[in-house]
């Protein structure tokens, strides 16, 4: 064969190899996107709460089939979302509902939050701890594909040593001071047990305090949202914490996206069941300044409530979420300033609609 022909054949071969590789890469990206948007049947417990309200909207928009459950009916529910009253402490009903729904995934949100939980620790234990056990057990029994658990920075506590490292990683001794925190540690351990013992695909996050334009559910981080809502509605708010209180916070759209991204992550990329998540950790006076800059004439004062302040002081100031970032690509998009810019008009709308 002529040498120029050898060159031409070589060129053609390497060109077709490159075209093949390029097509393969494009196909992989398209497939990954398709897989990420795989339509699922999803059952949500505690669906009428702060997270459930936003999560349902997002999942519904993405085309999933949803069964929303709670002890109280949601204020509004998109057309096509199935509603089912369900108390997670009623074991046989939990089992019946999960058996009937045959969900690909269960987002287990039902809980009593930290501050409200201290008013009735006994009931908090039943709902948060026994309820989580019944949900996991029913999912095992009826072969649910996946369970997503929402733990909290309240799983941490001051402990007996030098205190929590800053930032705080997942693996430190957990000594929560609230019943809520105790049940989150217990829930995390149950998740790990069901994963190891039965191979149930359980995943979860330790959420920071979440902020959204929905009424919060009685958590100790609620002072942050109240600075916005009371600041806009009344021009004045007396926060129940010290001005230098610093805890991890997150804007709800990031929180909802995190749950969906964790749900879509390939299992073999996950080295653990429960992941820390972080976004921003302003102190309370920095939040007050952000509200004042965005809203104008607002006075925020600080009158620490000893019980809630003690809870806040027992939590990490910042958390280390490098495992979530490395293993399933978690990355927050909002900081305090961008959250404030997005949140203030939404709260104004919400308050106008309610007045
Ligand atoms: N909001 C936050 O800042 C935050 C932070 C960390 C973790 N979490 C966790 O996320 C989950 C959802 O939190 P949220 O902020 O939406 O709380 P929320 O209080 O707004 O909602 C919880 C929902 O659970 C429901 N519920 C209570 N008892 C129930 C029962 N016996 N059976 C069924 N449902 C019941 C309530 O009616 C409520 O709608 C919880 O597990 C919470 O611990 C929330």
Outline:
The protein has helices at about 5-35, 50-60, 90-100, 115, 120-140, 180-200, 220-235, 250-265, 285-295, 305-315, 320-330, 335-355; strands at about 40-45, 65-70, 80-85, 105-110, 145-150, 200-205, 210, 235-240, 250, 275, 300. The protein is α/β, with parallel strands linked by helices.
What does this structure look like?
This protein is of the alpha/beta class. Helices cover 49% and strands 14% of the residues. The chain has a single domain, classed as Rossmann fold. The chain has 12 helices and 11 strands. The strands form 3 sheets. Strands 3-2-1-4-5-6-10 form a 7-stranded parallel sheet, sandwiched between helices. A two-stranded parallel ribbon has the order 7-9. The relative contact order is 0.11. Residues 45-46, 48-52, 70-72, 86-89, 109-113, 127, 131, 150, 152, 207, 209-210, 217, 219, 221 line the site of nicotinamide-adenine-dinucleotide.
Q: What distinguishing features does this structure have?
A:
355 residues, alpha/beta, Rossmann fold, seven-stranded parallel β-sheet, two-stranded parallel ribbon, 49% helix, binds nicotinamide-adenine-dinucleotide
Query: Strands across the major sheet, in which order?
Result: 3-2-1-4-5-6-10
What is the CATH superfamily classification?
Answer: NAD(P)-binding Rossmann-like Domain
Structural class by SSE content = alpha/beta
Named once each, the bound ligands are:
nicotinamide-adenine-dinucleotide
- Percent of residues in β-strands: 5-15%
């Amino acid at each position: 064969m002529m040498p120029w022909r050898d060159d031409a054949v070589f060129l053609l071969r390497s060109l077709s190899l490159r075209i093949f590789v390029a097509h393969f890469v494009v196909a992989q990206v398209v497939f990954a996107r398709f897989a990420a948007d795989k339509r699922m049947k999803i059952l949500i417990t505690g669906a009428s709460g702060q997270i459930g309200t936003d999560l349902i909207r997002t999942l519904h928009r993405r085309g999933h089939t949803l069964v929303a459950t709670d002890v109280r009916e949601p204020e509004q529910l998109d057309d096509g979302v199935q509603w089912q009253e369900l108390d997670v402490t009623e074991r046989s009903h939990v089992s019946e509902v999960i058996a009937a729904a045959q969900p690909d995934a269960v987002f287990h949100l039902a809980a009593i939050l930290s501050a409200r939980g201290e008013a009735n620790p006994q009931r908090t234990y039943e709902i948060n701890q026994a309820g989580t056990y019944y949900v996991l057990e029913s999912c095992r029994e009826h072969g649910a594909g996946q369970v997503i658990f929402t733990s909290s920075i309240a799983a941490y506590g001051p402990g007996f040593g030098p205190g929590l490292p800053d930032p705080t990683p997942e693996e430190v001794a957990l000594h929560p001071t609230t019943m809520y925190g105790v049940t989150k540690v217990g829930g995390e351990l149950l998740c790990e047990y069901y994963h190891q013992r039965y191979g149930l695909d359980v995943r979860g996050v330790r959420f920071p305090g979440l902020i959204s334009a929905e009424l919060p559910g009685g958590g100790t981080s609620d002072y942050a949202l109240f600075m916005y809502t009371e600041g806009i509605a009344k021009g004045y708010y007396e926060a129940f914490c010290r001005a230098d209180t610093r805890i991890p916070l997150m804007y709800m759209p990031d929180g909802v996206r995190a749950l969906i991204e964790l749900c879509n992550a390939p299992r073999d990329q996950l080295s653990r069941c429960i992941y820390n998540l972080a976004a921003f950790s302003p102190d309370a006076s920095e939040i007050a300044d952000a509200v004042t800059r965005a809203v104008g004439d607002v006075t925020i004062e600080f009158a620490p409530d000893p019980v809630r302040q003690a809870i806040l002081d027992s939590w990490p100031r910042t958390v280390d979420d490098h495992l979530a970032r490395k293993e399933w690509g978690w990355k927050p998009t909002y900081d305090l300033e961008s959250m404030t810019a997005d949140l203030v008009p939404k709260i104004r709308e919400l308050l106008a609609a309610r007045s």
